[in-house]
Specification:
Cytochrome Bc1 Complex, Chain D, domain 2; mainly alpha; globular; about 5% strand; 2 domains; single chain
């Protein structure tokens, strides 16, 4: 004889069904809540991963994996980026820097940095927001965030993008909102810039082997669109900073297919060649490789 339908089985009395239905409904609700929580968590994780990936692709060469930057050349983000949010307009300033770059001398934790950060306006709004949120929360930066901090959103980036600024204007606006800097820690007595003719010649040979395809035979006519390394472009980007900034940039970014692969001596030789090509006078001492000495050498001309 066939078994009765489950709902007619002696075990399933009306009383038991009355208990089972609410339990089943609760299970469904709980499952939905868990799924929603997992979905939200996954979305946050994806956004965090996207920010970390963007940082690794575009920022790590200068600001380093640990966010500490390069002494005398590229400022730290660890222990500093969240502090900018305390400025009036600091949130907008962060977005401006990422979108439009920054060119000028800034003071970070008592140390001066002079150089030019490139604009990353080719990245979309979501990517800019993600990488800034990564910077603000990585390397133990979270405890430094102001109370009630909300992650930057893509629509905020879109609103700032409409300002269409350049790096020098971003610097000028920064000067209006930045607090008075602490006493600079790198105020060592200036050292005269010096390199030898022989060093510049060695640098030229290294340039021809490692750099000429991108930057060309005249330093501004490369096949693959490398930035000009002489003339007005060079003056505008590097002419007001220290030798340390340019040396650190070369060492951390070049050659683009294997940054940092050359020896310290070769990078110094390359820099001597660039300086010679831009009209700086040679002397009796080779350009050194230690960052403290290079920081005390200025690229400004009298």
């Amino acid at each position: 004889m066939p078994s009765p339908p489950v709902f007619m089985h002696p075990m399933f009395t009306c009383k038991s069904i009355a208990v089972v239905i609410p339990v089943f409904a609760f299970a469904i609700t709980l499952g939905s809540s868990l799924a929603a929580a997992q979905s939200t968590s996954a979305a946050k994780s994806d956004a965090g991963d996207a920010g970390a990936r963007t940082y690794k692709t575009y920022c790590i060469a200068c600001h380093q994996e640990n966010g500490q930057g390069v002494g005398g050349a590229f400022p730290p983000l660890a222990g500093h980026a969240p502090d900018l949010l305390a400025w009036a307009g600091g949130r907008t300033h962060l977005i401006r820097v990422a979108l439009f770059g920054l060119e000028g001398t800034i003071n970070v934790n008592g140390t001066n940095f002079t150089g030019a950060m490139p604009a990353w306006d080719r990245l979309d709004d979501k990517s800019i927001a993600a990488v800034l949120n990564h910077v603000l929360t990585a390397w133990d930066n979270k405890p430094r965030l102001p109370a009630g901090f909300k992650p930057l959103a893509a629509d905020e980036v879109a609103a700032v993008r409409a300002e269409s600024l350049d790096a020098k204007r971003v610097f000028a606006l920064r000067q209006q909102i930045a607090p008075a800097p602490a006493a600079a820690a790198n105020n060592a007595a200036p050292i005269a810039l010096s390199f030898t003719e022989a060093q510049a010649a060695q640098g030229k040979a290294a340039y021809q082997h490692n750099c000429m395809d991108c930057h060309g035979t005249t330093l501004d006519n490369g096949e693959f669109g490398g930035a000009p390394l002489r003339g007005a472009y060079f003056r505008n980007h590097w002419g007001n900073g220290s030798v340390a900034s340019l040396y650190a940039y070369l060492k951390t970014k070049m050659p683009p297919d294997r940054p940092g692969a050359l020896s310290d001596k070769v990078y110094a030789d390359l820099l001597a060649f660039l300086l010679h090509s831009n009209g700086y006078e040679s002397g009796g001492r080779e350009l050194p490789t230690d960052s403290q000495t290079l920081q005390s050498m200025s690229l400004k001309r009298d």
